[in-house]
# Entry
Amino acid sequence: MGASEIAKVVTGGKTYYAYSFKSTASGITASDDGVSYSAIYTWQTPGYVPSTSVPEPSVVLGILGVAGIVATQRKLKKVSG
# Structure
């Protein structure tokens, strides 16, 4: 199945037009009709480079670990004081 639509993509101050959509089954469907939202759509746009600035999972886990240590120390101070 193909799509005849064109999507305007604005990122980094630049405007691109996406076309030639390709679908990949997601296994997720809408609860009301069981068909809607059943694919993830990707496209090829000449000149478009997707952003790759995603935080590393290890950084997020490290922050959560430090927050856990601080919370534990506060509880221990409260109990002993």
In short: Strands lie at 7-11, 14-25, 39-44. The mean pLDDT is 76. The longest strand covers residues 14-25.
